Amino acid sequence: MTIETPRFGTIEFEEEDVLRFPEGLLGFEECKRYVVLRHGEESPFFWLQSLERAEIAFLVADPASFQPEYAPEMPPGVAQLLRLTEETPRLVYAILSIPPGKPELMTANLAGPIVVNVAERLACQVVVEDDRWSVKHPIFEEVGGTDQNASTAA
Amino acid sequence: MIGDDIEIVVLDIRGEQVRIGIRAPKDVPILRQEIYAQVQQQNVEATETRPEDVPE
Predict the structure, then answer these.
(1) Per-residue pLDDT, A76
(2) What is the percent of chain A with per-residue pLDDT over 70, rounded to a whole number?
């Protein structure tokens, strides 16, 4: 199967590649089917490309890659929706936002992570009520701090 | 009561301020509406992200 997208041109995919969101994403409830595209060969970034609305795609990454202590509590009901058991391999993605032309201001939505049951290709967005994790968690804040220390030391 | 098992309780009244609590079974998610609204708004904002702005 193929889909024409404004960002990535023609994408080929198989039915077994499709990630299903039974409830969609908040604000995009009508978009229930996505494919996951790697941004670049070595890139930690992926795109969730909607199959229902070709203009909709979300940049995502594993939050553990920039926030190692991030371990949000799963709200009740998620395990059932995603058919998760204790042993089920799962992935967590954070949706990233970059204001146009300003990659240094990239933020991650840690209050609304995406949880994936890898084997079943089922996913949902959960809402995490935890004051530490905001919808606009800055990615480069700590990197910037390190740079500053480095230049002071020099 | 909301349904059979969700209860709204008044915790405290001080002057014009009322503190309200929700009593519900453990498997019922209780979330503040504004967090949902924030996540929804952020999803909309996230769709403006352009591939050319993604760091290598």
Answers:
(1) 78
(2) 91
Question: Which tokens sit at A121?
Answer: 């290709």
Q: Quick check: B31 and A112 CB within 8 A?
A: no
**Coil, strand or helix at A16:** helix
Cα–Cα distance, A45 to A148 (Å, whole number): 26
Tokens representing A31 are 């978009």
pTM recorded for the entire structure? 0.82
Check if the beta carbon of residue A120 is closer than 8 Å to that of residue A143: no
CA distance A48 to A34: 6
Q: How far is B56 from chain A (nearest CA, A)?
A: 7
pLDDT tens digits along A136-152: 999 987 544 444 444 44
CB A70 within 8 A of CB A63: yes
Q: What's the whole-number average pLDDT of chain B?
A: 88
* Max CA pair span of chain A: 55
Phi, psi dihedral angles at A38 (to 5 degrees): -80, 135
How many other C-beta atoms lie within 10 A of the C-beta of residue A100?
Answer: 10
ipTM of the predicted structure?
0.88
Run of H or E residues at B35: helix B33-46
CA–CA separation, B20 and A95 (whole Å): 33
Which residues numbered 1-60 in A keep a CB inside 8 Å of some CB on B? Answer: 7-8, 25-28, 39-40, 43, 45, 47, 55-59
